[in-house]
Sequence to fold (179 residues):
Amino acid sequence: MSRMHNQYRELESSYNYIDKTECLEKEIERFPSVYIEGAAGCGKTTMMRMFLEKHPEVDYTVLWMDEDEKDKEYEEYERYVDKYVDNSRWLILENVPEELPLHTVGMIKRSIRRLGGQDRIILIGRNEIPDALLGTFWNREMGLVTQHSMLFDQDEVECLIKQYGSRTSPEQLLRYTGG
Fold:
C-alpha cells in the first residue's frame, strides 16, 4: 500500500457514463465485504465511484495496494486498516494483487469479521478473488461482482453511440468488443 486517499476524484462531467452499479448495490446489501474483479479499464473503479456519488452518506477511505506491497511493513499497513475499520468507515482496497502475503490475508479476514452494521470492506482487483481469500467467499462473508456484470448490452451500446455521435454499428461494436 503506497497511497491513501480519503476520496476518489470526481467523475469527469465531459464523459457519458452508463450506470452499472446495480449488481454492486445488491452485493453490498447482502455481504459485509465485496470483491470486484475485472481486467484493467473494464470499469471497476468507475463503478465504485458512481456508487459513492449516489451515496454521499458513505464515509470511506481508499487504500491503493501495490505489487510491492509484500515488501511494506505489516504493522504500518495493519495500522491504516485498523484505524479506518475502527472508525466505522468503509474501506476500499484498490489494486488488490493476485498474490497476497499471509499477514495481509489474516488482517483482511479479521477486519471483515469485525465489521458491524453498515460498515463494508470493498476489494478491487484485476484477477479473481485471491485463493487465500476464497474461504471468506465460500463462508458468505464476501460477495462478488464479476467483469461480466460490467459489460454493456445492445441498448447501452446504442445509447453511447448516439451520445458520442458515432456512425459505428451497435451490432458491429458488440461483436468486436463483447460488450
Notes: The beta strands are 3-5, 33-37, 60-64, 90-94, 121-125, 142-145.
